[in-house]
Amino acid sequence: MMAQQALIADGVHKSFSAPSGKNSLAVLEDISVNVNQGEIVALVGPSGCGKSTLLNIAAGFEKPDMGQVLFMGKAITGPSPERAVVFQSASLFPWLTVKENIAFGLEKAKVKQKIIDEKCSEFIQLVGLTGFENYYPNQLSGGMQQRVALARVLVLEPKMLLMDEPFAALDAQTRLAMQQVLLSISMAIKPTILFITHDVEEALILADKVYVMSKLPGTIIRELEVPFDRPRPISIIGDPHFSKLKSEILEQLFYEPCGSYSTC
Ligand SMILES: Nc1ncnc2c1ncn2[C@@H]1O[C@H](COP(=O)(O)OP(=O)(O)O)[C@@H](O)[C@H]1O
Ligand SMILES: [Mg+2]
Fold first, then answer.
1. Of 161, 162, 262, which Cα lies nearest the Cα of 214?
2. From the CA of 50, how far away is ligand 1's center (Å)?
3. Among all ligands shown, which has an atom nearest to the Cα of 165?
């Protein structure tokens, strides 16, 4: 069966004018990426290479200077609940409980209470928060807050998730745990995800396909199909094939053509 395309960026260029207003900064140069339905595609690159800029274009917050960005075959003209964005900070409503935070969007959409209750418990279970329904955000760890943020978005069943370094603020162990949460969600409901990260290991654990971006101006320097089967337990990090691929990509990211390593 042919894969159904979800997001296509084709030949995207983007510059920003410098604060002085004189020179412009080329941020994205000829970026083409393709996310099929039900796929997790990671975009990995060093800090400041334009990853968030590309995500913002896919979200409809920014427009490309050149090139095309299509979602389900249609040009993206602005933000849409079809393309839900998940950021590094969970930004939950502090005055609402876990369940109320997750129910919020459904209530706004005037969904029947019975269905809200069913969906909330389904997604609370999916992100591993059963038993914490009545906790407030300040009573939760950072990882648990990100679980709520995920459930709150997933419960609305968007066609695609745009995730901008969602686990980057978490400690290393919590990050690994959250990657496993996302993997189990992906096994259960097969969401379509563009996942932005600066972390090569994270990209390889999560994604079906990885695009590697260069330093500014961001270009795609490599595209690879991730060769590991699912499920992918944490122990995959110890697999020699995994480590080899990881170090190969790190080399590509940080090695300068002049023969030295970048210091940024
Ligand atoms: N709205 C903006 N105006 C001017 N410059 C911007 C704007 N957004 C991003 N930039 C610049 O674009 C570059 C890439 O930023 P960003 O996409 O946030 O990178 P990343 O997410 O990979 O860290 C940075 O140099 C940043 O200063
Ligand atoms: Mg960013």
1. 262
2. 6
3. 2
